[in-house]
Amino acid sequence: MQPADIARSYDEIAHQWLEPHLETNGMRQHEHALRFRKQQGGGRALDVGCGCHGRFIRLLSQHGYAVEGLDISARMIELARQRHPGVTFHHVDVCQWEPEGAYDFITAWDSIWHLPLVQSAEVITRLCGALAPGGILIFTLGGLDEPGEKQDSSMGPPMHYSTPGIPQTLQVLASAGCILRHLEYDQHPEMHVFVIAQKS
User: Fold this and answer.
1) pLDDT, tens digit, for every residue of 98-131?
2) Angle 2-141-183 from CA coordinates, rounded to 5°
3) Helices (DSSP H) in 15-165: which residue ranges?
4) Which of 12, 86, 133, 145 has the fewest Cβ atoms within 10 Å of its own Cβ atom?
5) C-alpha separations of 188 from 26, 69, 82, 194 in Å
6) Beta strand 192-199 with 131-142: parallel, antiparallel or unpaired?
């Protein structure tokens, strides 16, 4: 599946991401990531694959960040703009996105793992490159030792998932000038991993 196919799948189920039970999903992990910039605080932030819920946008705003959202799903962006009219949203494929200026905090929670495997490393490198010195990147990936990808319909419409694997991900981060600050299997025994990296 290509990113445009993922966009169509998420367009179909965008409303599901408004459900109240998502309010706490990923929040503990983001609070932890924010501690690595606690002394600096604030700045520019970007939510990659922001969806329509807005919980990370609210959290980052509460910590003094000017937040932007980015998503490939037109329906997600439409709903997000309705819920957060004062926020700038970018309807764009992250594989084609070119950042304007640097960000102090970037989150890509449960989003970039939908990319074709051949584009994963490039996008992680681009996100690292969009960080200001000392900036934080938090993202999720499949916690495998080797690269892998799969497709399923567990959410209804077909979805594609890929992971460069933990060893390659760490190499990509280091090559992009970022230092690993935290890696955790936060839903073990599920292979859901979140990573916090900081631009050196």
Assistant:
1) 998 999 999 999 999 999 999 999 999 999 999 9
2) 160
3) 27-34, 55-62, 74-83, 117-129
4) 86
5) 15, 29, 35, 12
6) antiparallel
